[in-house]
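Duplicate of earlier report; tRNA N6-adenosine threonylcarbamoyltransferase input re-posted below.
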Amino acid sequence: MSDSIILGIESSCDDTSAAIIKGNCILSNIAANQAIHKEYGGVVPELASRAHQQNIIPVVEKSITKANIQQNAISAIGFTRGPGLLGSLLVGTSFAKSLAMSLNVPLIEVNHLQAHILAHFIEDANPMPPQFPFLCLTVSGGHTMIVLVKDYFDMEIIGKTIDDAAGEAFDKIGKIFDLDYPAGPIIDRLAKEGNPDAFTFNKPRMENYDYSFSGIKTSVLYFIQKEVRKNPDFIKENLNDLCASVQRTIIEILMAKLEKAAKELNIKEVAIAGGVSANSALRKVMQDYHEKSGWNIYIPKFEYTTDNAAMIAMVAQLKYERGEFTDMKTSATAKYDL
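Output:
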């Protein structure tokens, strides 16, 4: 890995983030979160892009200061081109282009989903990086997929959700329980005090390695409506058990397909990535599979699970070594295949 210094910029959703990487060592990883979306129970694209415009300069400045480097030491600038919210992506893309032009350094586009997976190659992400080929369960608020990773830039999606992402299911079910947004971390916390076997919810029967999470959401909704008619305080009185039961069901759905893929493809190197990989119960189940199935498992540090610029900088570093630079005419794209 070269000693080039790369600035990574991430703005795909509602977090504005900038990071500096040298080789595969992160020197800084700064993020500004947007609390305003809590009021609306979800990310409002127009508000997100406005907040990125306010946050991007201070976040980039802070990342350079914390890394203790001079701006002219930057070798290249990596940015998230997609997928994500177009307005948010445009802010990061435009800023990255302008700064690259002013510093006269190369520009490197990064696929956000690829970055979640390749975050495992950051020096302090894991004690050891995964060995190729490996399977990566990439699971977040916007995406749920099983990816067969044959090399850094040779990836194949072998299974994906046909409707809601797992993180989206957590948030929508959280809304049914009258929890704040984002509900995933709240459900994780409350589930620790609950009985995961208290309630049973429907699991989908999907072909191959594909997922579906709309069914569990509907199953929970109908169950809650029925119980609340009998007891208006049902949710409040059973909240911990409800959260634990929902969490167990979603994780069982995720792991059943991952286990099937690992067995059928005879792969023991298994990783998780994306925002939902921060879930404590999912991390525990992954550890259990290490004992049960002999998997070599890779669970990223918490700071590399949610949207962050460190993972963007890592991919940019790998592309920099290969001389894969981006034309200044490039534009942000809401959809960007892996």
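The chain has a mean pLDDT of 93.

Merging into the original ticket.
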